[in-house]
Design brief:
The complex is a heterodimer of chains A (156) and B (625). Chain A has 4 helices and 7 strands; from the N terminus they run E-H-H-E-E-H-H-E-E-E-E. With 156 residues, chain A is α+β, with helices and mostly antiparallel strands. Chain A has one domain. The longest helix of chain A has 13 residues. The chains are: A alpha+beta (156), B mainly alpha (625).
Chain lengths: 156, 625
């Protein structure tokens, strides 16, 4: 995509498994109209990124003290309950675990001004990563735009 | 006098016999030309099949070989089988990952699976044994199935193919469909089985019962999955609806509108319903509860979903099991997520805030409320980028005919380019809606307001199609003439507009659709339009000439927006374009498409034209050799 330019508006938020579950149950998670979690950082890439070499954009976000505290509070190992261990105490333990388990939510609007297609493609992407499985807090989203202006994205 | 009469009579006889003779000669020449073109068509098919071996694009090669085999079969069985076997072996190298990122959580259909179905369909049509050989090879491949499956994927690649084939022939050959579905049971009970069972029941109740009994026997044979029970539950209690549990505790539903309004099978088959419910209880709802791990959480969610769905059927068909089932579900809920009280509170509080309960609202009131809520969310949004997206979502949520509301919301988008794009979409969607309703005056008002060239011309082509499809008015011949003239004008405007636009797949498709419609009005203009379409296609890297769908021009900011647009039923494939031309001008049409420079596209175009000509002039007397 020679001379294609793009910029990104983003919000990184932090929520808990418990809040995420509540949002899921209430339909808030699917509706895509409202964002979940406490804001960690928002921004827009200062200026359009031009290709051909700059097809990748890296955003580094330092965590403030309260965020670091929340992440430190993340349970080191997960407690699993079985049919034989269902007790009021264990149910409470699970609830606490869900309140302490942190999940990052990234909300973005990617603007691609594609010179080949002579078109602007606007791509809103929302994605969550649990801290339990992403201890280095490095996340990746890749976007592919087809010749007919349709797009797909993948994340890991 | 008498000699003068004799002379006149002789002259008449001579002139009549001369006319008959001329007609016979013309008919003979026409037949000779037809035979010559048919041989040329067959030679073209053979050439294209030979060319596929040098292609790097294996997907196109499989399609071309399969189509070529289908066409050649009646003239040369061995060659057909050879090409089809080659196509089958090429499918091994095709991508087996999900093609549709948006649907992959539901179905992970791949290019490989789609093309295998195509090859198998042709094999089954011409040579059952060959089809069987292909299916047996799939059995070996079962372990290679991609691990990231959609919730409603069939059990294995083999069952997927068998049930797809069964679905295709269900109407024409229910017994063969039964046999294929029965074979699929070796791999378990797959999602598509529900459709087969319901479809089969419409054709032959006894056959459907027999298949259900076999499926239930299979269900009892080993430790079944809750998803297998959902398939049979859907068939018995709620036709056309299948539930599944996705990750993150989501409940997923797939609907088949064609089967949704059918009466419940269980009412007619209470014993079968009871047997099924007993088996579900024994094998799924009385087993030890799963341990608390991420995987087991999904399993528990699946069991809960199934159990809750079956509570009412249990009380009707197996009431003795109700207490045990309820107790199991209560335990399952306890070890599952423990915040159900929280979610209930959320639901209650949102209801309490409403002035009117949802059940007392009319459809129109619900619509008004939904739009007002979306606009309110957008108004509240502080981040400019997200605010624009929120307004666009609200504009898309308006009904197509309510375009003025859509416009007033889109006007709030604080970005000129995005606002223009959204307005263009709202008008385009409204215009297509009015065309579908045959309200052409309203549609015509909107056309000039659509700023996007492609969208504007999709409406034009739909407009022209609608005018040409209008029933001829014998009493008012002038009205019919006027319709044809208006259609012609729209197609001319479309041509003029698109000539100024850069080439794209969308432009090429519309040019093909334009050719198809022009061919109904003016043969010469249509040939010229075909040439123009080929020139556009020639500028593209690649194009699927068989994809006849009119381009769907949704908004990238709201990926689901395309689904809210009426689809005009105009064919935009190469086949549609040459439909009215190929029989009278085969060699001309073939020479036009043969000018395409891209190797594979050129070959596929020639193949399509040749196949179409053979089909249109089908005659078993032709000797192709």
């Amino acid at each position: 995509m020679p001379e294609t330019k793009w910029d990104v508006s983003y919000e990184l938020r932090l929520t808990t498994e418990a809040d995420l579950w509540t949002a899921s149950r209430s339909g808030k998670l699917k509706s895509e109209t409202e964002r979940i979690g406490d804001l960690v950082k928002q921004g827009t890439t200062a200026q359009a990124v031009a290709s051909p070499d700059e097809k990748a954009l890296v955003i580094e976000i330092p965590f403030d003290k309260p965020t670091q505290e929340r992440l430190k509070n993340q349970p080191n190992s997960r407690f699993n309950m079985t049919a034989s261990t269902v007790t009021a105490e264990n149910i409470e333990r699970l609830k606490v675990q869900e309140r302490r388990s942190q999940v990052f939510m990234l909300y973005t609007v990617v603007n691609v001004h594609d010179t080949k297609l002579k078109k602007r493609v606007v791509i809103p992407i929302s994605r969550g990563w649990d801290f339990a499985n992403h201890r280095d807090a490095r996340f990746n989203i890749s976007i592919e735009i087809s010749d007919d202006s349709t797009y797909s994205w993948k994340s890991k | 006098m008498s000699s003068a009469k004799a002379i006149i009579g002789l002259v008449l006889i001579l002139s009549l016999s001369g006319s008959v003779c001329a007609q016979a000669v013309a008919a003979s020449e026409k037949e000779q030309q037809r035979q010559r073109w048919r041989r040329q068509a067959i030679d073209t098919i053979k050439q294209v099949a030979a060319e596929t071996s040098t292609w790097s694009d294996k997907e196109t090669a499989v399609q071309a070989l399969t189509d070529a085999a289908d066409s050649i079969w009646k003239y040369d069985t061995d060659l057909g089988a050879e090409w089809l076997s080659k196509a089958w072996s090429l499918t091994d190298g095709l991508a087996s990952t999900a093609t549709d990122e948006k649907l992959k959580d539901f179905f992970s259909t791949s290019v490989q699976s789609r093309l295998r179905t195509r090859v198998l369909s042709v094999a089954r049509k011409h040579d059952q044994k060959l089809a069987q050989t292909f299916v047996e090879q799939l059995q070996v491949d079962n372990d290679n199935k991609e691990k990231s499956r959609g919730v409603f994927d069939d059990r294995t690649v083999r069952s997927e193919q068998l049930l797809t084939l069964a679905q295709q022939i269900l109407d024409s050959n229910p017994h063969e469909a039964f046999r294929l579905a029965q074979t699929s049971l070796a791999d378990g009970i797959s999602f598509k089985l529900q459709n087969i069972l319901t479809g089969l029941r419409k054709k032959d109740v006894a056959l459907a019962n027999q298949l259900f009994d076999l499926a239930l026997a299979r269900f009892k044979l080993s430790q079944p999955e809750p998803s297998e029970a959902q398939v049979l539950a859907g068939y018995l209690f709620q036709s056309g609806i299948t539930f599944g549990a996705g990750g993150n505790g989501t409940t997923m539903v797939v609907l088949n509108p064609a089967h949704q309004s059918l009466p419940a099978v269980a009412a007619k088959e209470p014993l079968r319903a009871k047997n099924f419910l007993s088996a579900v209880y024994e094998l799924l709802l009385s087993r030890p509860l799963p341990e608390e791990t991420p995987e087991s959480r999904i399993k528990a969610q699946s069991l809960l979903l199934l159990g809750n769905r079956l509570v009412v059927p249990y009380s009707t068909y197996a009431p003795d099991l109700v207490p045990s089932v309820r107790s199991f579900l209560a335990n399952l809920e306890r070890i599952g997520r423990t915040d159900s009280t929280l979610s209930q509170n959320v639901t209650r509080s949102s209801s309490a805030n409403d002035a009117k309960s949802p059940s007392f609202r009319t459809a129109e009131e619900s619509y008004e409320k939904a739009i007002a809520e979306l606009v309110e969310i957008a108004d509240r949004e502080k981040n400019p980028a997200f605010k624009n997206i929120a307004y666009i979502r609200a504009a898309v949520a308006t009904k197509p005919h309510d375009y003025s509301r859509g416009k007033s919301i889109a006007d709030k988008v604080d970005d000129l380019e995005l606002r223009t794009e959204t307005l263009s979409f709202v008008y385009y969607r409204g215009a297509l809606f009015f065309v579908r309703q045959s309200d052409l005056d309203n549609a015509a008002d909107l056309v000039p307001r659509i700023s996007d060239v492609l969208r504007r011309n999709v409406v034009r082509i739909a407009f022209a199609h609608s005018l040409l499809e209008a029933k001829p008015n014998r009493k008012n011949e002038r009205a019919s003439q006027l319709n044809r003239q208006r259609a012609f004008d729209h197609l001319n405007d479309l041509g003029n507009d698109l000539r100024k636009t850069d080439s794209s797949i969308g432009v090429a498709k519309l040019m093909l659709g334009r050719t198809a419609l022009l061919a109904r009005l003016d043969h010469t203009q249509a040939v010229a339009a075909l040439e123009e379409a080929m020139q556009v296609i020639d500028k593209l890297d690649k194009m699927n000439l068989q994809d006849g769908a009119v381009p769907t021009l949704g908004l990238s900011a709201v990926p689901s927006s395309g689904a809210t647009v009426e689809k005009p039923s105009v064919g935009c494939s190469l086949r549609s374009a040459v439909e009215e031309l190929v029989e009278s001008d085969f060699d001309l049409v073939l020479s036009i498409v043969a000018k395409l420079r891209q190797r594979e596209t050129n070959a596929v175009a020639r193949l399509e034209v040749a196949r179409h000509y053979l089909e249109k002039t089908d005659s078993p007397t032709v000797n192709p050799r």
